[in-house]
């Protein structure tokens, strides 16, 4: 009986040690990866360490335990606030309504919308970097077209439900806006990262 | 790493289970008014499958939703998933079928929240980790209905609190390193970037204050694992980190994230003695 307990304890200690090792590794890897990606625009590859990385074998465990994340909150190259804005127009292009919240009402929902805006900004940036490569092979070209199409669909759908709820709206414009420092006195200004107008009737 | 028990396991396990379920319940309640825009069959802001298409969860969620579709169960799933999630959290709270409840809550949390993964943030990952720990730690051993109904002998042979302590130390250490590697955190620029908003003016403070807070944040996070293990410095570093999270809650509106981080800090390193003795009734003694 005591031997069983000791054995169970040893197994648990082993499992928790591996779990903590994966957390340490994931935290280390994401920090180094992000640093090289931002400062040197390249991905590092150390084959021996790939065993611990999120791969086909380790991925289910990473996902179910929630440790598939880095911890560099607002760390390297801190991003500024991003937000989406929808402007609704009537048939004569007159502005009917402008909104940032897309019918979301709770503070929790609105905070999450900000995460979505950051996600879109990162996606646009990664797509931009892909398109700026000097030469693209067939797979990269396919990926680039796919990413552009996906981005377009996300923006198109993003405003659709809101625009539909505005009487007389025939078209709408979606903008992704970010805040950047204006000068040394730290005033802010806004930059539109993405802007596209859609006809409400063409949504498919 | 020493996992030998040190007498704090019981209080830790009770505190952790109660707080994780309470925080998760409050968070889902706070999202109730908007949930249909994020998780529903046909009224989401962006179609549901587009939301998880590019996430690492696609290869698990897509077959799952395909399976539901093939048996016409999609509507039922969307109707009952949230209810089941809340029910499993309530079961976890009272400690009824604790391990099964934790497992169901974990799976449903992953399915529900990862179905709108671009709308996820740090809180969601920490909740997944918390529910995972509720699954693998014997959190139902004390002060639970399981204990009252099944009357098993509670055995806690391991210092589970140590796992959370090392995890949390790793989190802050690497968060401190990541910030320290960015010059912006040493000159106030990154803090300004983090705070600047169209909705408030917290960012509008003298440059030297931004520098002090920025450098302070780097030092607090980086030194956390070194100072929190020393009894002399523990209360100072814990107080600093809790103040930091309270500021994040107020200035960045990240209430759920800050709450769960403060809870982790208290669970891992806080003095839980005041929570025991008179405040809770050990079912074993009832």
Could you write a compact summary of the structure shown?
The complex is a heterodimer of chains A (204) and B (286). Chain A has helices spanning 2-40, 59-65, 107-131, 138-164, and strands at residues 82-89, 95-99, 171-181, 188-199.
Please specify the SSE layout and strand pairing.
The complex is a heterodimer of chains A (204) and B (286).
Chain A lengths: L1 H39 L18 H7 L16 E8 L5 E5 L7 H25 L6 H27 L6 E11 L6 E12 L5
Antiparallel strand pairs in A: 1-2, 1-3, 3-4
Helix pairs in contact in A: 3-4
Chain B lengths: L8 H22 L4 H4 L9 H5 L5 H13 L3 H21 L3 H17 L7 H15 L8 H6 L10 H20 L3 H4 L1 H7 L11 H21 L3 H22 L2 H15 L17
Helix pairs in contact in B: 1-5, 1-7, 1-14, 5-6, 6-7, 7-14, 9-12, 9-14, 11-12, 12-13, 13-14
Structure description:
The complex is a heterodimer of chains A (204) and B (286). By secondary structure, chain A is an alpha+beta fold. Chain A is 48% helix and 18% strand. Chain B is mainly α. The radius of gyration of chain B is 21 Å and the shape is flat. Chains A and B meet through helix 1, helix 2, helix 3 and helix 4 of A and helix 7, helix 9 and helix 11 of B.
Uncertain segments of chain B: 279-286
**Average pLDDT of chain B, to the nearest integer?**
90
Cα gyration radius of chain B (Å): 21 Å
H/I helix tally of chain A: 4
**How many structural domains are formed by the residues of chain B?**
2
| Major sheet characteristics of chain A | 4 strands, antiparallel
Beta content of chain B? under 5%
Helicity level of chain A: 40-55%
Radius of gyration of chain A: 23 Å
Strand content of chain A: 15-25%
Q: Classify the secondary structure makeup of chain A into a structural class.
A: alpha+beta
DSSP summary, beta strand count of chain A? 4
- The count of β-strands of chain B is 0
Helical stretch tally of chain B: 14
- Quaternary structure type: heterodimer
Mean pLDDT of chain A: 84
Name the overall outline of chain A: elongated
Which protein chains make the most extensive interface, counting residues with beta carbons within 8 Å of the other chain's beta carbons?
Answer: A-B, 67 and 71 residues
């Amino acid at each position: 009986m005591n031997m069983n307990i000791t054995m169970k304890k040893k197994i648990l200690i082993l499992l928790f040690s591996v779990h903590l090792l994966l957390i340490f590794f994931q935290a280390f890897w994401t920090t180094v990866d992000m640093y090289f990606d931002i400062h040197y625009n390249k991905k590092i590859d150390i084959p021996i360490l790939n065993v611990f990385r999120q791969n086909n074998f380790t991925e289910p465990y990473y996902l179910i335990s929630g440790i598939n994340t880095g911890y560099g909150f607002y760390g390297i190259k801190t991003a500024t606030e991003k937000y989406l804005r929808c402007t609704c127009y009537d048939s004569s292009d007159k502005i009917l309504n402008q909104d940032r919240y897309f019918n979301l009402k709770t503070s929790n929902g609105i905070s999450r919308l900000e995460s979505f805006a950051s996600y879109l900004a990162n996606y646009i940036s990664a797509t931009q970097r892909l398109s700026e490569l000097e030469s693209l092979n067939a797979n990269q070209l396919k990926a680039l077209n796919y990413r552009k199409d996906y981005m377009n669909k996300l923006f198109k759908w993003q405003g659709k439900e809101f625009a539909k709820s505005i009487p007389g709206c025939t078209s709408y414009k979606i903008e992704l806006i970010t805040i950047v420092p204006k000068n040394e006195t730290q005033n802010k200004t806004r930059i539109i990262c993405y802007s596209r107008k859609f006809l409400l009737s063409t949504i498919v | 790493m020493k996992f030998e028990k040190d007498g704090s396991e019981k209080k830790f396990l009770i505190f952790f289970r109660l707080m994780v379920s309470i925080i998760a319940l409050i968070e889902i309640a706070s999202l109730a008014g908007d949930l249909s825009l994020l998780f529903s069959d046909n009224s989401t802001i962006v179609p549901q499958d587009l939301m998880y298409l590019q996430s690492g969860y696609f290869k698990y969620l897509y077959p799952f939703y395909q399976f539901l579709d093939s048996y016409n169960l999609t509507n039922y799933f969307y109707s009952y998933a949230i209810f089941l999630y809340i029910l499993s959290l309530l079961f976890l709270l009272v400690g009824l079928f604790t391990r099964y409840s934790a497992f169901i809550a974990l799976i449903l949390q992953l399915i529900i929240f990862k179905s709108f993964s671009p709308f996820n943030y740090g809180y969601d990952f920490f909740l997944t980790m918390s529910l995972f720990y509720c699954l693998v730690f014997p959190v139902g051993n004390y002060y639970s209905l399981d204990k009252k109904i099944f009357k098993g002998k509670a055995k806690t042979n391991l210092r589970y609190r140590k796992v959370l302590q090392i995890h949390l130390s790793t989190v802050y250490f690497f968060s401190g390193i990541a910030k320290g590697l960015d010059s912006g955190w040493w000159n106030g620029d990154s803090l300004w970037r983090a705070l600047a908003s169209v909705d408030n003016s917290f960012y509008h403070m003298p440059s030297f204050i931004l520098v002090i807070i920025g450098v302070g944040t780097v030092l607090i996070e980086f030194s956390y694992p070194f100072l929190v293990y020393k009894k002399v410095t523990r209360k100072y570093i814990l107080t600093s980190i809790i103040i930091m999270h309270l500021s994040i809650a107020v200035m960045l509106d990240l209430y759920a994230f800050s709450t769960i981080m403060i809870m982790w800090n208290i669970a891992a390193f806080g003095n839980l003695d005041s929570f025991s003795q008179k405040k809770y009734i050990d079912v074993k003694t009832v």
